[in-house]
Amino acid sequence: MQLQFSVMVFVTLFLIGLPLIAALAFPWGANLGLPGLWYGMPFAYVLLNLVMYIAHKRKDWNKYSEYVVDREAKVRARDEETMRLANARAGNEPEVHHHRKRTESNHL
What we know:
Elements: H1 2-25, H2 34-58, H3 61-90
Helix pairs in contact: 1-2
């Protein structure tokens, strides 16, 4: 998703906005000078915001959130396996009682 939005920024600001600004500002275009720069910039940013708004609305956020939850579960499992292997190499006993409730007898 980051790549998609960065491509949108590049296209709208550099491939559309910059040539428009140059066409408004320089003599081979509208020859407006500095005001041409100021007129072209808001157009480029409004276009960018419009394109991003449309992309944001078209995104299936339920599907994306499921992807994130699955990815997070895989990362958590990988991290737990890494810790288990590190403890085994260090000669430590693996934790077998992760969610044991604390009672008075546990910490005597």
